[in-house]
Automatic annotation (TrEMBL), chains A, B, C, D:
Source species: Saccharolobus shibatae
GO biological process: non-phosphorylated glucose catabolic process
Name the record gives this protein: Glucose 1-dehydrogenase
Pfam families in UniProt: ADH_N (PF08240), Glu_dehyd_C (PF16912)
Role according to the record: Catalyzes the NAD(P)(+)-dependent oxidation of D-glucose to D-gluconate via gluconolactone. Can utilize both NAD(+) and NADP(+) as electron acceptor. Is involved in the degradation of glucose through a non-phosphorylative variant of the Entner-Doudoroff pathway.
């Protein structure tokens, strides 16, 4: 069958004919036909050879690329419950180490040994291929109403995890507003890419005042989306920020983009670090440290997601689809065939929010 | 204007012409045109004179009935933000005492002084009238897609609070399943009325295996709804319960209905008490107490909801409307005019899930 | 060597010469010389043959009794860290199933399979013998200053667990007082046995107003202890209870002793069930259920403890020893030799708080 | 009466005769005779005129210095409960704004308006004077056994708050060790001043492996203390750090001292920022940000404490005094009379851990 194959740590990607998966699936497994994959910065980092932690499965010299996924159950083992043939599913990406308490408890997003594998990224073949077999415990069923946008679920799951972590950690004080809601809180999301928009969506439907920041004017599609979700676009080079920031989300990984905003952080505020980029620097001085101390500011980096986060993501997709018509589908700015994927994997199309590979 | 007026602690209800509300609204207020009210057991308890804590506002000898509500903003004061004329809104019911820490922090559902008032129930006129004025901080905006079912939001808000409290209190151990989801957990909801169905819905979309229990066969509409939401109806007089119960929700308030089920409670399980009824008894023996101890069982009563719970309820309504088409709307089994309301307030129509008074 | 041996589910206990433990201890193990054991109701339940879940280790027809323990490290394997020969230690009692997430994460007190074993109770020989070998991961080091009272640590650990669970679950609202302390909260502990006194101690040093209730006048030693810890003894048959109860702790397992007090429970209050007894009954009516609902009352049963709870118990013992001189040591009302133990295991000595078997 | 008076924002401190406090104390107040004050960097910052946020009470041009305190109740109003004449007390420092939810709930350490006052620091006279009157709700009773070291309670309270916040926020995953304890966790405390030592003490008695880091060899008194508390001193210029750091505490406020250690942070680790200093810089690069993201690292600044934290601090002092004899008292490296205080307020004595002003 056809697959998109990479050779980490070397660069390159090719559409290649690989061995068909075997016929037999075990009791707990399902055979999945791939419907679509999303492409993200991690995929391009692997293709360019820059993402140093990417590696093939043990004993192989190449890797099937792809972690953002949507598929359909074609067949299933006799012990698979809660799934039927024809059901749409999304596979979770990280598979636990089987050793640390978090992995043993299904929270491999907090794996402590680092011995996990991630489909399409490190140590496990990914989902950019016609078919794959997976243990049903890694599959999240997609309800009918969101099949058209469910390819966004995997990136969303990571956003859900970070949001849930925020809500837990902010229980260190009374953080909600006087009326019991979050209507008084300003959230600034640095970056207007797919992750930035998903963060904006999640805060918006929870009642936060949401601002999306970039260092340029918005593309028309960004303007349209951000307006529809009741958020506000801010061009950092000329527009006014809100007076205080209660929550700062960095999706850029670029220190000069978010550290300078930290002097607007409110007392009791929080910062989520979500972006990962290489090479940029920024000078931190002791005044900033004092500011974080004096104002009880919390900051955390967040990566990956658990199956529960995927399941909650399913619910968010349904809310957003009907609350904000023509937002999620418009985030898919381009659909390509597998054969066309290498081109968009080497270079991000201008104006892209999310490019999708369609297998059907 | 027209209103449904009661005389607690005496019985009776009448449609009555009451004084129009004044013209002037203050800066933070909105003028609301009532669209619909739901009728629940509390309303009937007041009308029958059995609900002893019901009372008119201070200095009045009658009370405008009605706490389940949906209205539309007709006018608003200059300081009202986040609401526009024409917006649909639901008012929260309980207004805090202004003294205890919970009320001062917008969590009047945990008022400790007991000096709160509740619209249509105790000390504050309710929403069964053509118009009313309310401070905007008590108003929850209803997005367009769920206006048709938003009259269910007030009862739902209480269910959301109880669910959130459960999720917090069960953090006392690792309670999720091995795959990080709740797919391995069995929830039994005692009672198939509107509250029972709303609990079933909330557990269903979170991935729990949900069972709805009553002591009779389901009405056809109940069968239809319960099947659509992937739950299972259990006739307690003849059907088999699941082997273990991880979560038991009582919406009946009737001890003989749920206490006998408690010997099926799993280790680390929880029980939510939500129903309030008078007069029934059940003998508890020391073996049950020992069972609760030995199995780390948690149980809590839950009442009322905060504004945040209403806001989350809005999101659940959107999910359910599109996940389970023709469920929420079918829960509204009857719509009556205000003039017809006394009849359904005196006696519950047979087969009723939720009866609504429509003012438009 | 000498040991106290029982034959569950049959009654009886005898001092018996059993095989010496082997010479060789593995890398992670320590050889412990028993210093003392406490005797509690569970021991007497096993001796009397009434405690039905007690059982010998697999393949044996008898069981070494004893779970409350204090010992001294005589020898240790090469991989044991953080312990030296001569160190005093207390062994934790329950050993996890090795399967469920809680046991895999060291929280066997929340074991979900029920396949755990408990030293001296079910499936594992206990500590009423001259020597035993244990894996060092089950040993809690006892600092010098509390060696004289450390035999109380095992029962205390269970109290610590329950207290910690309470503090977590009460985060469902703002439960502390207006000044940030717990000085405004009334705790009523039902039962003045060792567990009742340990609960009183833990609440007292956290600032709660603590009341210890029994259905009789206090013994002189109880009066002395309760006064010293700033608590108040209440004879339920004649003394006045506090007007409201914020926290009710039952250590009796006897429904008629605590259920009638529940109508004094404050809004947002909590009940801990800790006692386990057989045979008594009490009639619960729907009004009580309604009361629990309307007042957001939480209740939980609590059993066993994790190693962390033991470690926190160590700290409590140090506080109490120096805060309340002559309290903990006076709780040890009798010390017997192993040969005398059967007598006090068959029948509780009058006026006993805690009877100890001394092996040195 | 005598007092130490400062003139913020100008530099200088003098021993001055000020007006006696009035005779009459209101119902909820107590008259306190000062026993001792501790001196910390904040005091010296005010004296030097460098601490810009320091200010006199409204309408005054000077400020009585002093926030670390210990006093004795000389008289009390009729409504004061839980305190007797002769009781030793410590006053909490910050007084809430009376407006925000946190202050209204007694959590002024999380004040959101910034309109709080702090005794001896900003807007409220401090405790370096012979007598003062305070509302009893701000007083923490000191049990007899720790009167000699209770002047350490105020700085300790801030450490307790930070520790509690850590334990709450780390509930985002399973963070304890496989045996349920924290024995597998390495804590590195940057700075060996009084705050660094108090942090080391709190982590040590909770079972963490604790390392105290400075950029020099320890003073003899530091060596002695750190060895007694089972911690390990690390001279950052030559000694080896532990391989992984699970918890990094900065008490220096000096970015070059702790940021370079962050590449040793374990997965799921946390960083507490506690130090506040001016002027130093350090370059942060995107790799560090990526590291925080990929490893789920959490970081928070922490300031001030609630009354509950003071009360828990009381308990820690008792534990430490008897667990580690001759540690806490040796932390008080110098005791001066009020007349000698200006000298030590202008310049920190060499080898100081904590200098105390004694008023008796």
């Amino acid at each position: 069958m056809k697959a998109l194959v990479v050779y980490p740590p070397n660069k390159g990607v090719e559409v290649k004919e690989i061995d068909s998966i075997g016929q037999s699936i075990s009791g707990e497994e399902a055979l999945i036909k791939t419907i679509a994959n999303g492409i993200c910065g991690t995929d391009r980092g692997i293709v360019s050879g820059l993402l140093k932690f990417s590696r093939p499965p043990e004993g192989k010299n190449n890797l099937v690329l792809g972690h953002e996924n949507l598929g359909q159950v074609i067949d299933k083992g006799p012990n698979v419950q809660g799934l039927s043939k024809g059901d749409y599913v999304v596979s979770i990406v990280r598979r636990g180490c089987g050793k640390c308490s978090n992995c043993l408890a299904g929270r491999q997003d907090f794996c402590e040994t680092g011995e996990f594998v991630e489909a399409g990224i490190r140590g496990l073949d990914g989902f950019m291929r016609e078919f794959y077999i997976d243990n049903a415990s890694y599959l999240v069923r997609i309800p009918n109403e969101i099949v058209d946008i469910a390819v966004l679920l995997e990136p969303l799951s990571n956003v859900v995890k970070a949001y849930n972590e925020l809500m837990l950690t902010q229980k260190r004080m009374i953080w909600w507003c006087k009326d019991g809601s979050y209507d008084c809180r300003n959230v600034v999301v640095v970056g207007s890419g797919p992750i930035g928009l998903l963060f904006s969506l999640i805060f918006s439907v929870q009642g936060f005042n949401t601002f999306v920041l970039n260092k340029r004017d918005p593309f028309p599609i960004e303007s349209e989306i951000i307006e529809k979700i009741n958020a506000k676009f801010i061009n950092a080079t000329k527009d006014q920020l809100p007076n205080v920031i209660d929550m700062l989300i960095d999706t850029s990984g670029y220190p000069p983009a978010f550290i300078p905003l930290m002097d607007k952080l409110n007392k009791n505020s929080a910062v989520i670090l979500f972006g990962t980029t290489g090479g940029e620097k920024f000078e931190v001085n002791a005044d900033l440290i004092t500011y974080l101390v004096e104002n009880n500011v919390l900051l955390f980096g967040s990566v990956n997601a658990s199956k529960k986060d995927f399941e909650e993501g399913v619910n968010y997709l349904t809310i957003w689809k009907y609350r904000y018509p023509n937002v999620l589908n418009k985030m898919i700015t381009r659909v390509v065939k597998p054969e066309e994927a290498p081109e968009v994997l080497y270079a991000k199309p201008r104006g892209e929010i999310k490019t999708i590979i369609s297998w059907v």
